[in-house]
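Page 42, continued from yesterday. The earlier attempt failed because a stray header line got pasted into the input along with the sequence. Redoing it now with the clean sequence only.
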Amino acid sequence: MADQSKLPSLLWPAASWKVLKKIIRAWYTAESGGGEMTQRGVAKIAGLQPSRLSANKPFLQAVGIIEPEGISLTEGGKQLGLGLTTENERVTQQALQSIVRSNTLLKQLWNVIRGRGTTDSADFEAQVVLLTRLGQDSDYFSTGVNVLRDLLLESGLVGISENNSLRPNITELKEEPKDSLREGPKAEASKVPGLRQIPIAVSTSKIWFIQIDENPDEAEITKFIEMQKLIFSLK
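This time it went through. C-alpha cells are written below.
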C-alpha cells in the first residue's frame, strides 16, 4: 500500500460513499480486465460522466485507495475492489481496516473515537476540521465528512451507539497491534486512577492527551480553559 504518512492536499469528494464504491468497483474491473486502462473506460463501466470520476479521484488518492501518482489502485484499493465486486463483506471490511490503519487522516479519526469512547456528529466534524484544516466553507465539506464517517463504519472498526454517536468496535480493537497509537503506551502508563483521559488531535500526526475529573463542573472547565490560555500565552 502507498505510504500515506503525509497526505496530499485534500479535496473533498463530490459524491457519497455509495457512489465512490461504484467508482472503486469499476476501477477494479477495468484494471483487472487486462485491456487498456483509462479513466474514461472506468467512468463508462461505472456509468458516470468522466468529469464526475475525475472530481472524486483526488479524494480516493488522499485516503490511499488510488496511488498518489498515476491511475492504479493501491494494494488496499485492489483488495477493496475485489471485496466490492464479489460482494464479499469480510474481504471488503478487511481492506477498509487496512486502509484506515495505513492512512494518517483516517487513523487519527479512529484514534480519537477510541480514546473518547463515543463521538457525536458535532465532535466528529470538529475533529475533521482540526485534522484537515478545511472548514464548512470548503466545497463539498459536508459530503466529505459523511464519506469519512461511512467509510469508518463500513470498516467495522467503529460502530453506532444508542444515541447515534460513533463508538469503537471493541472486538476489532483486539486485533490492532499494541503500538498502533504512537502516544498510547506512554499515556496509559501515566494515567491516574479516577481521572478521565481525553485525546486532542493537534495535527494529522500528533495527539495530545489531558486527564480530568470524571465529572468536572462547568466552573472548573471554564477555569481550566483560562489557565491554558495563560500557560500558552494565548489571547
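Notes: Confidence is low (pLDDT under 50) at residues 1-8, 173-189.
Reminder to self: strip header lines before submitting.
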